[in-house]
Amino acid sequence: MAASSDGRQQNLFQKLKPLCVPLLEKSQLTPVNVPTVLHLLSDLENTLHRESERQLSTSLASYVFYPISTILRRNTLAQIPDRVLERVLNILTVLCESWWWDCELEVWTQLFMLSSSILGSLEGKGKDKLRSDETREAAAMCLLALTHERDNSEPPPGAAEGLFSARIALLQGHTQSAKFIPVLGQTIDSLLTTSKSRHRPLQHVSLQLLDVIIRVYAPNRLVASVLPGVVSTMSRVALGTQENKGWANGDIVAGALLVMQNTVAISIGDAVCIADGAVRSFVVLEDLVHLSCSPNPTKDTTGASYLITRTPSWLHASASQLHIALNALTPLVYHPTAVALIALANMAKELLSTTSLTLPQSQPLLLSWLLSLSNSSYPRVADTAYTSLLHVLTGSPANVRQVLLQTLMHISKECMNSLPVSIASQADARIEHIAGHVEVICRLALSTSDIPKDIGLSSISGTLHYILGPGGGIEKWGWTLLSVLQFKPPSVSINPVSISQLLLEGNPDTIERVTFPEVTLKNAISRSATDSLASMFRALGRASGDHCLYAVEWFVKLGLHSKSSAAASSLWCAVRLLEGVSGIPLTSDGLQSQGVTSYSKHLEKFIRGLTREVAELWTVEPVDPSTAPSEVREGDELSPRTEVVKGVKEIRVTLDIVEPRPPTTPTADDQLLLHRAFCLQLLALGAGILQARFTGLLIHVIYPVLHSIVSPNHHCSLSGMAALAFIANATSYASPGSLLLSHFDYALDGVSRRLNRRWFDVDATKVLAVLVRLVGSDIVEKAGDVVEECFDRLDEYHGYEVIVEGLMEVLGEVVKAIEADEPHVRDEVAEDNSQMAHDLQPLYEWITHRNDPLLDSDHTDYGPAPRRAWRDLGHDEGGQGEPQIGDDQREEDPAEQALTSVQSLTKQMVSRSIHFLTYGSPVIRARILSLLTSATPVMPESALLPSIHQAWPFILNRLNDQELFVVSATAELIEALATHVGSFMGRRIWDDIWPRFHAILKKLETTDGQSALARRGYGAVGTDSAYTNSHRLYRSIIKTMTAAVNGVYMQDGAGWDVILAFRRFLHRGAHTELQMWARELYATLSKGNEDAVWLALMATSGRLTGDVAFLREVRWDINDNILLLLNE
User: Fold this and answer.
1) Is the pLDDT of residue 1124 over 50?
2) Are 209 and 149 in contact (CB under 8 A)?
3) How far apart are CA 123 and CA 1056, in angstroms?
4) CA gap 481, 475 in Å, rounded
5) How many domains does one find in the chain?
6) Does residue 438 lie within any of the structural domains?
7) 943 & 1073 share domain
8) First vs last Cα of the chain: how many Å apart?
9) Are residues 1065 and 992 both part of a single domain?
């Protein structure tokens, strides 16, 4: 091994010799040889870097050092150019990495002083002699190579054990001597200057050097002397006061905080101050024995005036100034880089552990840093801060731990007391700061479960129990908080579905994806402030557990029994606390993420009582806020005050043009709706806690939830749908419809009790309608009860338009559900081709023989033969003869077929509803027509046609109704009848309906031109939207006439009128849907009279002239649709 090492050193020597010898020859620098020296120095540096993995021997390092030292001796520092000096320092840096272990102390000292002088620019005077940043960086790197710590794995081969300890002890003894301390002081001063440099590499290495020198080489009394300067400079560097962009670089902040941390710990730490007598420590009883004795400070043996002697007065003054400096670093909590935040957390941890006695006034500040950083958005920062917090609370001595715990409990109480002030001042950042502190303290309380009880962390849980428990804690901050905590519904609610989709599009399955809408804090600008408050209350409930139920009950009682503006806010607080107690967030995945959880009997009993109490709110008649008196607490200004002001009007020193207005407060209606929404959240949480055991309470809960769904307010409606979906999920039902179907009697009972004269709710009919809609087609099993309830109420309240309209809406929903469940009964109409001629050969034959003489009578006697039909002959002979054909095969009359229960129920609804076709309200008339339309596909002819025949005059009168939507509903009914019972409607359409349709089409052609929704352009037809009444009426008329001409013989005159009347719907400017149905109509017409259709369309498009030229319509472009019809 030795031989191979010597061989490598010899090879390296051969590489270095051609560089060192010329360099020695040109050691005297002149302007002529400076480029050559630079080239040689560059090659030497590159060679050393390439061989940096090999340990240089002492002799080889001395060999390289000799020409370098010669250059430094033969030239003054002022004469050496920056570039040459930079290369020299770089070479010395590489040499010191290997030479540090056995370099002579004198050489080490000279190199240290050389680098320090260059770093501080002490070799020249005047501004023009300052070295460049790159040169000073090289000097700092050389100084760092001389001073940085090594470990035992780095010594050269063959070195004795303990070489590192001996070497570092030698250097420390030398640097801490009275002769070298001024050099250290000057070096620290130079580094403080370069640490503020804008040259980033120089600033970074200066901070590293400061840390090494202060921590390893400087005596602690010198560190105490430079404490003010170091703290002041590092504070400016960390805060980036010289940075134009705002925040300082994260690595620079971390380096500055590390220097400050070590400086404070060394100069003003508990251990050194106790040793010097500046502070006393009382850990055991024996320490009290020396209480009356004066401390014995360590005597100064050096006599140097620049070394500080730690005394109580010095400590008091330094601690005060240091607290101010630390307080100035608080903005670093919001630094955007994780490196800086981790360094701040480590600094707080170190100072809490080492300065608990010397810096007692800074303990709350340092703890607040760790609390804030524990809520950082960077996971690594949050984990580091939280781990540091646990470490100082569990790993510190008993006396230190108790002080920290008392400080932590004081912080929690102060946070709850100062929170209302921050909310009232709309300080969002302060709100998030306070809420984050409380949340982390609650996490600490939960983390004490795995820590031994003798540690004493249970006092955190005890403090939370006091804040939320019956000891009077909640009364101290609860009233103040509620006086400023006001919510308002957001202007826009973002949710996957809306109540309009549920009620108009008929898709109740989407209710399962609804989440509870969020609310906005009135006194907060950002959304994050409201979220932080919610997280704080959840954390309080989670940490306190069942001890929090007192606070929940306090908030609930205030919210349910108070009519002030604080009622809704009280319920919001109760909901958030209960979320924490149960561990169930009211989100879409709240129950999925929760899993199976067992709760205490006390909590379940509390929830049962709370659910009943909340559900009773819907059994009390709501008070009109405009007439009912309300309790307005002091500070609530729901109306402007009238004031009398005397004197000169005050001049506003602002640039506002308008007068300032007082802040608006949420209206009473908004607060009432929010109150109901929060009550629904309480019901949902009760279901989440009780789960399957909640089914017994559904008799109280179903009606309030459904009543909220039909609310005209979007926020309340979404809350009701979210609550229903949450309850269904919590009680293990596949969907809300399954839940309502299983407890349909509960829901129907709730509606029935609110439709009697003793207690009446106008919205009860809407609740019943939405109940039928949500259950869907499964309602068929319970339809009889619903229909019976509706007709009972119709008999009782038939004179009240609102009630009748609601009940008819319910019946319509029932029929739609039956229509979706039952198979359609369609009348199969055979095409009547008896009047259609497909072959003209018989005609030609008749023309040929029309004048031929008649054949003579046949007088041949064929014997006895019957003179009548065989069937009649059988009847005359008393049944003797040929058997009657079809007696056994005769089908049963459809009228005699037994109806199913559903068809019988539908027949009952139809027969009892047709009387309302003449009701005064057009809405009710339209609903009856829609009911008949939905019942037509379900009922057989034997059940449907008698009622239709009876109501036929009323149906015809509805075509002359003043309201267009009633006429449209009538046309849809006629369309359904023509489609499903065409044989019954065949002649009625041509005799009764078509003349009215013809008149309606002419009337609509005139009125569409005056409508704002009509299509614009030459020859435009109809409206742009497919949801207007006129469009629906057009569609129904076209489909009705299509069904009427299909398979029914049509007179030529009426058929020609139909062909001409619907030509405009083939115009390319008409709606696409109307064009499609018009093509189908003309295709059906072509089956009966193809020539007439061809003639009319060709003449309309201008392709025929002559006698049919009058049919030409220039305003209609129907060529495209003609081509489609011809291609068919």
Assistant:
1) yes
2) no
3) 116
4) 10
5) 3
6) no
7) no
8) 100
9) yes
Residue 881 backbone class (left: φ over 0; alpha: ψ -120 to 50; beta: rest): left
Burial group, residue 660, by CB count within 10 angstroms (0-12, 13-18, 19+): exposed
Instruction: Copy the structure tokens of residue 156.
Output: 């050269």
Which DSSP state fits 1028?
S
Q: Which of 296, 329, 360 is the last residue of a domain?
A: 360
Give the pair of three-digit tokens for residue 44: 């030497």
Nearest CA to 1061 among 1108, 1100, 1106?
A: 1100
The radius of gyration computed from the CA coordinates of the chain, to the nearest angstrom, equals 49
Whether the pTM exceeds 0.85: the reply is no
- Token pair of 832 as six digits: 């009547």
Only one residue has tokens 């003003």, namely: 268
d(CA 589, CA 513): 10
Residue 936: half-sphere exposure toward Cβ, Cα within 13 Å? 24
Kindly report the backbone phi and psi dihedral angles of residue 53, in degrees, each rounded to the nearest multiple of 5, phi listed first: -70, -20
Whether residue 754 sits in one domain with residue 772:
yes
C-beta separation of 483 from 569 below 8 A = no
- Work out the number of other CB atoms within 10 angstroms of the CB of residue 378: 16
**Contact between residue 99 and residue 129 where contact means Cβ atoms under 8 Å apart:** no
Task: Please list, in sequence order, all residues whose beta carbon lies within 8 angstroms of the beta carbon of residue 441, skipping any fewer than 6 positions away.
Answer: 371, 408, 411, 412, 460, 464, 543
Please indicate, yes or no, whether residues 930 and 800 belong to a single structural domain of this protein. yes
Cα of 649 vs its chain's centroid, Å: 49
Three-class SS state of 1071: coil
Do 776 and 914 fall into the same domain?
Answer: yes
Q: Between the CA of residue 185 and those of 188, 494, 781, what are the distances in Å? A: 5, 64, 95
Largest CA distance in the chain: 170
- Tell me, yes or no, whether 937 and 965 share the same domain: no
- The one-letter code for the residue type at 646 is K
996: containing domain: 960-1126
Residues 225 and 350 in one domain: yes
Beta strands in 381-498 (DSSP E): 487-488
What's the number of CA atoms in the CB half-sphere (13 Å) around residue 1002? Answer: 8
916 and 967 part of one domain: no
Are the beta carbons of 48 and 88 closer than 8 angstroms? Answer: no
- The amino acid at residue 1012 is A
Is 951 a member of any domain? yes
Residue-wise pLDDT for 463-492, tens only, equals 788 888 777 678 888 888 988 888 888 766
Contact call for residues 239 and 329 (beta carbons, < 8 A): yes
Question: Does residue 817 form part of some domain?
Answer: yes
Distance CA 717, CA 673 (A): 10
Q: Which pLDDT tens digit goes with each residue over 273-307?
A: 888 887 776 655 555 555 555 555 555 555 566 67
